[in-house]
Write a structure and sequence with these properties.
The chain is an alpha/beta fold. It has one domain: 3-Layer(aba) Sandwich (Rossmann fold), CATH 3.40.50. The protein is 36% helix and 16% strand. It is built from 13 helices and 11 strands. The strands form 3 sheets. The chain has a 6-stranded parallel sheet with strand order 4-3-5-6-10-11, sandwiched between helices. The chain has a 3-stranded antiparallel sheet with strand order 7-8-9. A two-stranded antiparallel sheet has the order 1-2. Helix 2 links the parallel strand 3 and strand 4. Helix 2 packs across helix 13. 43% of the residues are buried. Pfam families: Abhydrolase_6 (PF12697).
Length: 298
């Protein structure tokens, strides 16, 4: 099985997207870029949308690290991620759960940065529809989502599902090698250590695995509706050693967004799917930069 995946990685196309070089200061309110310094008047609230099969507990260390930089962080539990049999929630309920959190913040005139991991990208993008800073400004309102931060996450055009990307990338036939579909409609990784935590220290793996749960296959088949990335600045974190959202998926999705005329700031890492664990400091620094992006209030 690993030999097969190595073949995928050898065939990865790495062209077409420029990595934006960034430099970081020690202050969360001062973001230094290669050619300019951007002052952030206040820090946005971060809504962290976790991935399938995960729970907020898997993101505790990352959330704590963001809070140490002065951010308020909210990581709502996605209803579809549970061990109930048969599944009682799916993509729609996940979107509603995240939207309720984001809506309560923006209606209190807060600025929000939505950080999304994996499947959480599809959920988060749908959840913020109509709640962006640009949308609300056009209505004469304050607050709104000012930045979308995708960590090896699904960023798709409306009408596309997670499963569609899998099929279009030519990986559908390999799904059974990595994901077990149960008769009750739920799914779980065949080898979660490989799927999510390749190269991570064993003690971290041992702590993370008990927090994983089943997710319904229906969540991956649901068609998305959101396109907030057309109106909100986007940062995308690419991962080269990813067995859950393989690099070809990421390149395919970004190419589709690029065709739409959207400029995406990217950073590229030689790491596994759980980049928020393996590159925690870098992911905190990247959020600091995203929070101070001069495009956010444009």
């Amino acid at each position: 099985m690993i030999k097969t995946v190595s073949g995928w990685l050898a065939a990865i196309w790495r062209g077409g997207f420029n990595i934006v070089p960034l430099h970081y200061s020690n202050s969360p309110n001062l973001v230094e870029k290669t050619d300019q310094i951007v002052m952030a008047t206040s820090l946005p609230t971060i809504v962290l949308v976790h991935g399938a099969w995960h729970t907020p507990a898997n993101y505790k260390s990352y959330s704590d690290a963001l809070e140490a930089q002065g951010f308020k962080v909210l990581c709502p539990q996605l209803p579809s991620c549970n061990d109930k049999s048969p599944p009682v929630s799916s993509f729609t309920e996940d979107v509603t759960a995240v939207r309720d959190v984001v809506k309560s913040l923006v209606e209190a005139d807060e600025q929000v940065l939505v950080a999304m991991h994996s499947y959480g990208g599809a959920v988060g993008t749908d959840a913020v529809q109509g709640l962006t800073f640009a949308d609300r400004k056009a209505e004469g309102k304050s607050g709104g989502v000012i930045h979308l931060f995708y960590m090896c996450a699904y960023i798709v055009v409306p009408g596309t599902s997670v499963w569609d990307i899998c099929q279009e990338a030519g990986f559908a036939q390999l799904w059974p090698q990595f994901i077990q579909n149960f008769d009750d409609g739920s799914t779980f990784p065949v080898d979660p250590s490989l799927s999510f935590l390749g190269g991570v220290e064993q003690d971290i793996v041992d702590k993370a695995l008990p927090n994983l749960v089943r997710s319904p296959i229906s969540a991956f088949e649901a068609k998305t509706k959101g396109d907030a990335w057309r109106r909100v600045p986007v940062t995308y974190i690419l991962t080269q050693q990813d067995y859950s959202v393989p690099r070809p998926y990421q390149d395919l999705m970004l190419e589709k967004v690029k065709i739409e005329g959207v400029v995406v700031k990217t950073e590229d890492y030689e790491t596994c799917h759980s980049v928020f664990i393996t590159k925690e400091k870098e992911m905190v620094d990247a959020v600091v930069v995203a929070a101070g992006d001069e495009r956010n209030l444009g």
